Amino acid sequence: MRGRTAAPHLAGVAVDDHATGGRSTLTVMGASGSGGPIPPRPTPRPWPGEADRLAAEAVAAGDPTGWFDRLWSRARDGETTMPWDSREPQPLLAGWTADRPPGWRPASAVVVGCGLGADAEHVAALGVPTVAFDVSATAVELARRRYPRSAVDYRHADLFAPPASWHRAFELVVDVYTVQALPREVRAAATAAVAGLLAPGGRLVLTVFAARPDDDLTAGPPWPLTETDVAAFTDLLEPVTVERLPSERAPGRLFWRAVFRRPAD
Fold this sequence. Notes:
Elements: E1 14-17, E2 22-25, E3 28-29, E4 35-36, H1 47-60, H2 66-76, H3 91-98, E5 109-112, H4 118-125, E6 130-134, H5 137-146, E7 153-156, E8 170-176, H6 187-195, E9 198-209, H7 227-231, E10 238-246, E11 254-261
Parallel strand pairs: 5-6, 5-8, 6-7, 8-9
Antiparallel strand pairs: 1-2, 3-4, 9-11, 10-11
Helix pairs in contact: 1-2, 2-5
């Protein structure tokens, strides 16, 4: 529109001037009164390397979940690329929901370590009232921004200290990658915490990397699950299906897709 001054976010940008048929470069005055183009922002660092560094620091400090919010905050601020950035659900989760038991529709669901929310949105789209939580307040903020009209109840919560009202409260529990993102030192506690969310008669769907024979199980993230790690869930719940499957999310890797149930009272 005529009579408008150039917006600061267009500084230094070549703009087609349809009124005159020419092109011009917009500049804004800096705090000192001098004009000039705003320098470009640095290229974000790839998030996997940043995750490795932050996780190593957090684990060494005895804070195995402390790295998550630091990573998400760096991504929000443009310092790294966005972690686990997909608007589509994990394919193995989507495949399971498509083939879920006939007539079985859970009355409630929780998605553990929800990140940006794609898996939670998928579950909610099935008509299931869904809570999704993450230990990172920044991740929860980003998920709410990404899905501003969402039916999902996004919460900031810690898997190791969830609200008391969540104990055995959900008929569907979904864990995509959360247990594998925690070091082996807390694997047993994480397994018990995830299982503790499941209501009698409900289903837990676990989708995680399967450990390979040559994997260094002490190096992560991620810390892939062995057959013994998956079997640990059967100390707490009944197995329904345990499969080792490929996934398009990580060609060349196999994933566990394991479904467990808690017997009805």
